[in-house]
Design a protein that fits this description.
The radius of gyration is 25 Å and the shape is globular. α3 packs parallel to α4, α4 runs parallel beside α5 and α5 packs parallel to α6. With 401 residues, the protein is α/β, with parallel strands linked by helices. β2 and β3 form a beta hairpin. The two termini are 44 Å apart.
Length: 401
């Protein structure tokens, strides 16, 4: 027994039920795993409690402290941590080439890798994320450092050696030399991580990680699928994330990206596909047939923003009268300061889009000058920087507090 924790907490009894555990004793073994949870009325409760006290291995929660299961984040781009919150207004392809790839190329520097990954994993664990599924970079040595930092900060990591070999779609400075190179580097990462795990207290899991369809050749995709089967490993990628990504698949292969990934052997019950914001019925059938999991749009803001060139979007369906709903939306947009940051459209099947004008309501006012917002937008009266500063100011006043 490494330690025993005495206190109350919550856990999931099933997918739909939460269980409250009252003053239980959680026994943690020498490998850092929960060995058993002992209730107050169990026969060995008192004896194990006394043993933990006598060996100075008891941790007691106060009355206002509770334990919870750790959070699991199934889609994190570890090297993008320094760019968190940056350039959310950019479309996906522009964001990748101007911000993401230049940053990820810096991880050839292993001291930089260690500094960032130590900070990332510590922050995540401090805020309760005890398991994380990571995209790494194209550099195996850097990804092994990510695994070491996960172990150092007591996080269970599932870590991907990112593959991207298509010279037409990736920058020359951040590119695998060939499909064979992608496959060889992935295999090397798997073998070296498994070797590293022999001395790790928390075993880290390698993940087969083609970045997404536009980054990879079919040869690389098929080779990576073979590795996943050879080592019985999980797979991760992106699927149906944006119109640009889907359009690329249709133009090059005449098929949607989910179909291409499936034909290459990458859609099965060990697969996690990120985003899935543009899935149609045929895509969903593929996911269901292969038992593939997808990480939906409702993720941290960066991932939401990149799902549409227009920015973050949320669709709600309800049974309200549409005209009444639009009037309430206008009231929210006009009368609350932070409501000015939202643009709420109301539509129904019979009428289509409801406008302010047809309801006899005033037009929206510009955030900066309070003139007609559409006129300011058409004339580009204010710069993007001015608008961003105003939005940040409202956010700070209304939400940061």
């Amino acid at each position: 027994m490494r330690l025993a924790i005495k206190g109350s907490g919550y856990t999931s009894a099933s997918k739909t039920e939460i269980e409250f555990l009252n003053q239980v004793l959680i026994v943690v073994n020498d490998q850092g795993k929960i060995e058993k949870i002992i209730n107050q009325h169990d026969d060995d409760y008192a004896s194990l409690l006394q043993l933990a006290k006598s060996q100075n291995k008891l941790v007691e929660l106060s009355e206002n402290q509770y334990f919870l299961p750790g959070f699991i984040d199934t889609h994190i781009h570890a090297p993008q941590w320094p760019n968190a919150g940056l350039a959310l207004d950019k479309p996906l392809s522009e964001w990748l080439n101007e911000y993401t790839f230049p940053l990820e190329a810096k991880y050839q520097d292993l001291s930089f890798s260690e500094k960032v990954y130590d900070n990332l994993t510590k922050n995540l664990v401090d805020f309760g994320t005890t398991t994380a599924v990571y995209f790494g970079t194209i550099y195996p040595e850097s990804n092994l450092i990510l695994a070491k930092m996960c172990n150092k900060n007591r996080q269970r990591g599932l870590i991907g050696q990112v593959a991207m070999d298509d010279p037409d779609m990736n920058p020359e400075y951040y590119l695998d030399k060939s499909a064979a190179d992608s496959i060889a580097k992935t295999k090397r990462f798997i073998d070296e991580l498994q070797q590293q795990n022999q001395t790790n207290m928390i075993k880290q899991t390698p993940v087969i990680t083609p970045r997404f369809l536009p980054s990879c050749s079919l040869e690389a995709l098929r080779g990576l699928a073979n590795l996943a089967n050879q080592y019985d490993l999980p797979i991760q990628s992106h699927c149906n994330e944006s119109n640009w990504e889907n359009g690329y698949a249709l133009e090059k292969y005449g098929k949607r990206d989910a179909t291409v990934l499936d034909e290459c052997g990458l859609m099965n019950n060990r697969s996690i596909m990120a985003h899935g914001t543009l899935l149609n019925d045929s895509d969903l059938n593929l996911f269901e047939t292969g038992s593939t999991k997808f990480v939906p749009v409702f993720q941290p803001i960066k991932k939401v923003a990149l799902n549409s060139d227009a920015g973050p979007e949320l669709l709600l369906v309800n049974t309200m009268n549409a005209e009444s709903a639009k009037k309430q939306a206008i009231e929210f947009e006009d009368q609350l300061n932070y409501g000015r940051l939202f643009d709420i459209d109301v539509l129904n099947k019979q009428h289509g889009h409801y406008s302010r004008v047809e309801l006899g309501m005033q037009t929206r006012k510009c955030l900066i000058c309070n003139e007609n917002a559409k006129e300011c937008a058409r004339s580009r009266k204010h710069s993007v920087a001015e608008l961003q500063n105003k939005i940040s100011e409202i956010y700070a006043e209304e939400i940061d507090d």
